[in-house]
## 1
Amino acid sequence: MEQLPGGRRLRLASSLGLGQRCWEVTLDEERGLLAWRDPRPPRRGADNCFVPTSEIIAVEETEQNKKQRSTGKWQKMAKPHAFTECRPKQLLVYINPYGGKRQGKRIYEQKVAPLFSLASISADVVVTEHANHAKDNLFEVNISKYDGVVCVGGDGMFSEVMHGLIGRMQKDSGIDQNNPKAPLAQCNIRIGIIPAGSTDCVCYSTVGISDPVTSALHIIIGDCQPLDVSSVHHNNTFLKYAVSLLGYGFYGDVLKDSEKKRWMGPMRYDYSGFKTFLSHHYYEGTISFQPAKHTLGSPRDKDSCRTGCCVCKESEQQLAEQRKKCGFKHEEDEDEWKVIKGKFLAINVVNMSCACPRSPKGLSPAAHLADGTADLILVRKCSRFDFLRYLVRHTNRDDQFDFSFVDVYRVKSFQFTSKLSEDNESSVTDIGKKRFGQFCRDHPACCCNIANSTWNCDGETLDSSAIEVRVHCQLMKLFARGIEENCTDEAAYSHSSIEQLL
Ligand SMILES: Nc1ncnc2c1ncn2[C@@H]1O[C@H](COP(=O)(O)OP(=O)(O)OP(=O)(O)O)[C@@H](O)[C@H]1O
Ligand SMILES: CCCCCCCCCCCCC/C=C/[C@@H](O)[C@H](CO)NC(C)=O
Ligand SMILES: [Ca+2]
């Protein structure tokens, strides 16, 4: 045991055999760091290595002469979860064997299960047999038995698990999901996402990389990232929850077309994206929204939401104060509504940046994971060339909102009605008008079809075009910590140095 100058810092020092070399290891209790260095480095200035003790997965002992003790097997610590209390011990895992490139089962068995077992985490595994298997199962299981739920798959699979958990929570709390104004019960059981889908947008936007090992490590060390969830209703009927994209027009049409081509795997989005781009359909409708006033950020900010984000922390505090003041009672919201009518190529409402490997900065780079708001992006009717310029900016660093035909607003609630349904509603008895409502009024001669688009809700289609959306601040939690500052693929992979130490 060492005491450093100043007499405050206590360090445990020892040596560790790693391969053929012997390293000097210190445990700095005050800073919570385990550091190791080569006492005789091959070159001068070789770096010291360190890892926060809270990120050590497991500790195993071997004899100095490398023969393992007793049975010859690795020895586990008596208290394997001693490093930090918030680590999960018992997990419920759902694997979609058909998501993405159909690798979910292999990814879990080869990359994730060995790490869980190393960290002494037990897992009950369900390989899904049909769509909604995980969601339905979550309404039946003894959920209190688990410290978290893991989904192995893409955004659709995550959405299923999220619906199961949030739905179960509301049912157990006696909350009617069909009431769009009902304050929802927070879901405290964390979800871990092992990416094995086609877009993996939720994983990428909350971790900074789409990598099963990195995600497994976030689960093991018990990270916690709160997440905003939007509820989507139509005529006082609950439709869905959304955490990433609610897209009408371009992204709705891409999804609808791509669903018929699931056999193509992740490539289906590129194929349908190109086809939809060529079709260049625009849609008329009315958008109403309540601008978010409580938040510190704006969609045109240069800074993005990162680990420990102060904008999200401020929203967390406001949420806690609001709960103190009125509990879970519904508070009448009298904030103003803004109304915009127009012709749109795309209407995107995003709760988070929606970064993914195809669009590394996402559809709204400055959107926050947990600030209680969504960014409403309106892409008005423009030329094909201009729309292409806009789409290309999803893939590079240029400002996506710096176009005369693109507007962006930070909102807390939002409604949409298509012109077609407005016309049909206002003239239900006028059959003639209703019929002509199906044709484009700008080009009566060509009779081009102006049927409604479809809403893309986190990669699932919605049945209704008229929707009412409300953002619920930090309704659920993930095993993640947000994207770390200066996160590069290399930094995200640095977790693997922890594995090497073991
Ligand atoms: N065993 C199963 N058979 C068929 N469909 C399933 C099964 N298990 C889950 N599903 C459904 O498959 C859908 C898509 O799965 P998933 O999200 O994992 O992959 P993806 O669509 O390829 O990826 P992404 O959502 O990232 O684009 C989900 O909506 C889920 O409900
Ligand atoms: C000609 C250039 C075209 C560039 C197109 C860029 C495409 C970027 C795709 C970003 C999609 C991010 C939104 C994520 C949505 C998910 O919820 C959903 C389900 O996984 N995925 C899709 C594609 O709808
Ligand atoms: Ca948000």
## 2
Amino acid sequence: MFYSLQGEGARSGRAAVFCRFSKCNLWTGREQDRKAAVCNFCDTDIVGTDGQNGGIFTGALALVDAVTALWPDNAGGKPYVICTGGEPALQLDEELISCFHDSGFEVGIETNGTLPLPNGLDWICVSPKGSAQVVVEHCNELKLVYPQALAPPERFQNLSAENYFLSPMASPNVADSALDAFKQENTRKALEYCLVHPQWRLTLQMHKLLGID
Ligand SMILES: C[S@@+](CC[C@H](N)C(=O)[O-])C[C@H]1O[C@@H](n2cnc3c(N)ncnc32)[C@H](O)[C@@H]1O
Ligand SMILES: Nc1nc2[nH]cc(C(=O)O)c2c(=O)[nH]1
Ligand code: SF4
Ligand SMILES: [Mg+2]
């Protein structure tokens, strides 16, 4: 868990506590399994609970307390927690969402869209992966990593979303992702796609450009 600025999509620049759930249904998180995984470009360590402010939380209240401790005191603005991962839809439930609400938080999710979502979320970002079927029926933003051979934008242009974004694929190696040629090439391709298809907007991973979490 960490406090940072949302670096992607329609809410870019907004302060939030990121709550990163471990495990995913589209990749084990082990490098030896990456090539064969449905999602094979993940830029995140999704294994274990030993990350920054990590742990195993047996109840919603304990988790909400840990998130609340990361939000600045008396700071104004609406507290915001972004549930991400790994795939947060494997673990997030209505009880946790309503505990966050009781503590004054707005609750967002970053999801691959392949699993049904609990009720009560305030902001849903769906980011489709490869051949995986999206089951989430409506989202606030669709944020498609581009290019993906098995997930071209045309497959998603009729999904119900308030915003459609292309996010250039960065190399899975976060350390050198800011400047590498791979990302520059993908950024150029995404830019060109958005110019030809104005339904789609370009989003860049601002936190990586800034060198923050
Ligand atoms: C690590 S995922 C976790 C949430 C969820 N499992 C998902 O895929 O949306 C968080 C965000 O990072 C994006 N992402 C992951 N790897 C990326 C990469 N190599 N380049 C650009 N975006 C990436 C995902 O598409 C998603 O929007
Ligand atoms: N700053 C920042 N913004 C983000 N937006 C989505 C992220 C994610 O990994 O889910 C992310 C992240 O890891 N860092
Ligand atoms: S990007 Fe999301 S869906 Fe893909 S492996 Fe990482 S956590 Fe799973
Ligand atoms: Mg990230």
